[in-house]
Amino acid sequence: MSGSRELRNNGVVKNGTRSTEPPQEELATGERSTRNRVARSILDHGPSTVADLAGRLGLTQAAVRRHLDALVADDVVEAREQRVYGARTRGRPAKVFALTDCGRDAFDQSYDKLAVDALRWIERNAGGQAAVVAFARARLAAQAEVYRKAVDAAAPEERTEALAKALSVDGYAATARSAPGRANGEQLCQHHCPVAHVAEQYPQLCEAETEVFSQLLGTHVQRLATIAHGDGVCTTFIPRSEPPGPPAAQSPGTPQTTNNPSASTAGRNPA
């Protein structure tokens, strides 16, 4: 993994003894082992089934299961029941594999303790919770300007995707997709959060980020899940704006409608 320590590359156990030669898939990947590719794919795409991973990596499902077994044994990934949106179908939900805290740490050079200590000092000596909020907003200000350029350059229907790509450059492994079960909205999914452990203690970081997303996209957004709260992915719902329709025809002699502040939709939650 670039910029981080490599995951332990344990050999395959056969007949009670550890094989001294790695399988062919690992030999073919050079310095980035197949096991690391599996973990990285889960980081980039979120909790994944064996079939998902096999399709993305070009491996057999048997090979993926073998690497997942080793990653589970190393506490890098864990098996979960797949979250189902809408009505459940018959049968048990598919099993998905998600990164553990230990697995996420393998992708970070963690300075969490220093960051938490700094925020705690700010909270105690520089104005309490309000100072922490001010810091969180100021921290995102410079990033927001870069994101704004990407969003403003995109067509309206592609702005969420443009924001996801800009976030990915900063290490958030973000994607955009239609929101499951919601015909008129999208989900912005961040599969990695470099400050997740700090945000566990200071959720103001997540709140400031949500505010920035709303400002950049010009609409109210709703945070549905965060890695800091224990979810597998940071998920934000973004309503699609409806294109304005043609003006209604008026009958001759009908008085012109005036702007009535009480009829304005400003400030309503579009979700």
UniProtKB/TrEMBL annotation:
Polar residues: compositionally biased ranges: 251-271
GO MF term list: DNA-binding transcription factor activity
Region of interest (Disordered), ranges: 1-35, 235-271
InterPro entries linked: ArsR-like_HTH (IPR011991), Carb_Metab_HTH_regulators (IPR050313), WH-like_DNA-bd_sf (IPR036388), WH_DNA-bd_sf (IPR036390)
Pfam families (alphabetical): HTH_24
Highest rank taxon of the organism: Bacteria
Gene3D superfamilies: Winged helix-like DNA-binding domain superfamily/Winged helix DNA-binding domain (1.10.10.10)
Protein name per the record: Transcriptional regulator
